[in-house]
Amino acid sequence: MVINSFKSEQEFANNQFGFPKEFVIENYISAWETANLGTLFSNSIFICLTATFLTVLIGAVTSYFLSRFTFKLNKAVYTFFIFGMLIPIHATLVPMFILMRNIGLLNTPITLIFPYIAFHLPITIFILTSFMKAFPKDIEESAIMDGCGIFRIFWSIILPMSRPALATVLILNFIYNWNEFSFALVLINDPNLQTLPLGLASFAGQFTTNYGAQMAGLTMSLIPIIAFYLLLEKEIVKGMTAGAVKG
């Protein structure tokens, strides 16, 4: 994809797998100007970061209570959230469109943020609950004896210990929200509110497709994902290696 983003239309048609004879930087300029990538990037970043932050925040608090407290409906509530993983997203597109239209949220960022939170909250709770259940009770008992309350324990002890799992769900949510296309296609009609995947689809016309500019746009769209992963890479490695070596 990166190699083809530097090819002219003619060279791309003749040789899709070789290196370009001449690097065409104009593909990136064309992609930025034609698809209005500046607006698309800002829309995607706002929606993606907001949905990711709220999903992980709600998921972390919910997972804390489900994993560290015992109450009558504990298993029922956990099963209710996990059941959401079985619901196919595309089966809800029409009902979601009707709902958003009736409450007047079509063509607003919120119309994407709400579904993103709802459909990725189950996997977030599943991962965080499984991780938090492994913490020994002695840690909380010691904190309670020192005068810590429930939310102080959550904020100062449970969250820092859960950083590897939090990094994992942050990346999963970010990638899902960044690449999501179906909801954006159905719920957003205003070109000024479109997300990046939806805007990049404009390069594919009914009869012709500007593959060079499309590849350039896709290449640029990978930069935030790579940067976000590199930012959290250390925490993910800690989670993968935790418990791998004893002693």
UniProtKB/TrEMBL annotation:
Cellular component annotations (GO), alphabetically ordered: plasma membrane
Gene3D superfamilies (UniProt xref): MetI-like
Keyword RNA-binding: no
Stored SUPFAM superfamilies: MetI-like
Keywords attached to this entry: Cell membrane, Membrane, Transmembrane, Transmembrane helix, Transport
InterPro entries: MetI-like, MetI-like_sf
Transmembrane segments annotated in the record for this chain: 44-66, 78-100, 112-132, 153-176, 211-232
Any Gene Ontology biological process: transmembrane transport
Residue ranges occupied by any ABC transmembrane type-1 domain in the UniProt entry: 41-232
Organism domain of life: Bacteria
Compartments in which it is found: Cell membrane
Family of this protein: Belongs to the binding-protein-dependent transport system permease family.
Name of the protein in question: Carbohydrate ABC transporter permease
Organism: Gracilibacillus dipsosauri
Native organism taxonomy: Bacteria, Bacillati, Bacillota, Bacilli, Bacillales
